[in-house]
Specification:
There is one protein chain. The chain is elongated, with a radius of gyration of 26 Å. It has two domains: about 5-115, Beta-Lactamase (2-Layer Sandwich); about 195-355, Histidine kinase-like ATPase, C-terminal domain (Heat Shock Protein 90), CATH 3.30.565.10. With about 350 residues, the chain is an alpha+beta fold. The chain has helices at about 5-15, 35-40, 45, 50-55, 60-70, 115-160, 165-190, 205-215, 240-255, 320-325; strands at about 20-25, 30, 75-80, 90-100, 105-115, 200, 225, 235, 260-275, 280-290, 330-340, 340-350. The strands form three sheets. Strands 2-1-5-4-3 form a five-stranded antiparallel β-sheet. Helix 6 packs antiparallel against helix 7, helix 8 (about 205-215) packs across helix 9 (about 240-255) and helix 9 packs antiparallel against helix 10 (about 320-325).
Length: about 350
């Protein structure tokens, strides 16, 4: 392979679109990383196989590749249900492009784009935009409240020094205590704006530390299961901020479950994944899964917005702050309800240069 061919191969491997190349014998001769991720199969396992071996549950692809050789024209199909060997089927948009050399079709390029993935990316973008506006509004409001709040507290302290009546001192103490409570509340609202201080961090050490905090905080027996991917490398992150984000998610899961329900913490490597409109070659996915009732439908779309909560005693800041902390590292948190389980998934880029 010469330099130009190597450069082209590297470029294709960095595409978010899945690209597969079949020769005139209908054998797969090339697949990029996005293709491996979509099919959940490594190139070593499927290179050299015909379409019916790669998609044994979906004859559509075999038929379309043969027709592309026969009729020599680009064919586009949308919303195709693609059955997979290793997991459930997914919907994809497909492009079949013949490569013609000297009037002969030598190869067929198959491009696949996951429809669900595209929809999720658009939803993520829209949520990020709305959340950014909401957070900026809340941050501005917090600043505006803190200034007069400090004046109120200071005036109460001066009044306390001048009063001789013990019964009146009770009121100044209430003013001071409530001022402190509101200030602490506002500090929590503004905490996520702190710029990350990075160092090499092990995600599993973070999770174990957070579990130890949760077990100390809770008065009940919590059923926590773990499913770790030991191949995950260290990441360049702010340890304290990452602890806070994971802690907020796990606290949320604990509040949503009872003694006979369980929480699963699962880590995996994701390849060629788009986060915050940026393609990442490698990322960590941490799933916090519980089989509780999930977020109430009426607030589900705004779950990550400040002041939105389904708990009577909640402040509505936990998920919002967690999202802000992860986003400041170039990552994101997604919510999904499937198979009667609640999934909060942290997607965290491994590449040090991906974060802001």
């Amino acid at each position: 392979m010469n330099h130009t061919e190597e450069r082209a191969a590297q470029t294709i491997d960095h595409l978010a679109t899945s690209v597969l190349l079949f020769d005139e014998n209908l054998h797969l001769v090339s697949i990029n990383s996005a293709g491996e991720s979509l099919l959940s199969m490594s190139s070593k396992r499927i290179l050299g196989l015909p379409p019916e071996k790669i998609w044994p549950n979906t004859m559509f692809f075999s038929d379309m590749i043969r027709k592309s050789f026969q009729f020599v024209r680009t064919r586009i199909e949308r919303g195709v249900e693609m059955g997979l060997i290793n997991r459930d089927s997914v919907k994809v948009d497909c492009i079949f492009t013949p490569i013609v050399i000297n009037d002969e079709t030598k190869e067929i390029i198959v491009e696949l784009v996951g429809v669900d993935a595209f929809v999720r990316e658009m939803q993520e973008f829209n949520h990020q935009t709305v959340q950014k506006v909401a957070n900026e509004s809340v941050q501005g409001m917090a600043h505006e409240i803190k200034n007069p709040l400090g004046g109120i507290r200071g005036a109460a302290q001066l009044m306390e020094k001048e009063l001789d009546d013990e019964s009146l001192l009770e009121y100044t103490k209430i003013i001071i205590n409530e001022s402190d409570r509101l200030r602490n509340f506002l500090d929590r609202m503004m905490a996520a704006n702190t710029h990350p201080v990075r160092s090499d961090t092990n995600i599993h050490e973070i999770i174990e530390y957070v579990i130890s905090i949760i077990r100390v905080e809770s008065s009940r027996n919590i059923n926590i299961e773990k499913d770790y991917d030991p191949s995950i490398p260290t990441i360049n992150a702010d340890r304290e901020q990452l602890i806070q984000a994971v802690l907020n998610l796990l606290r949320n899961a604990v509040q949503a479950t009872t003694d006979d329900e369980r929480i699963l913490l699962k880590t995996r490597i994701q390849r060629q994944i788009t986060i915050q409109n940026k393609l990442n070659k490698l990322a960590i996915q941490l799933d916090v899964i519980d089989n509780g009732p999930g977020i109430p439908a009426e607030i589900e779309s705004g779950a990550f917005y400040p002041m939105v909560t389904g708990h009577a005693e909640g402040t509505g800041l936990g998920l919002s702050i967690a999202q802000q902390l992860i986003q400041s590292h170039g990552g994101a948190i997604n919510y999904e309800r499937k198979e009667n389980n609640t999934y909060f998934s942290i997607l965290f880029p491994i590449d040090r240069n991906n974060a802001e």
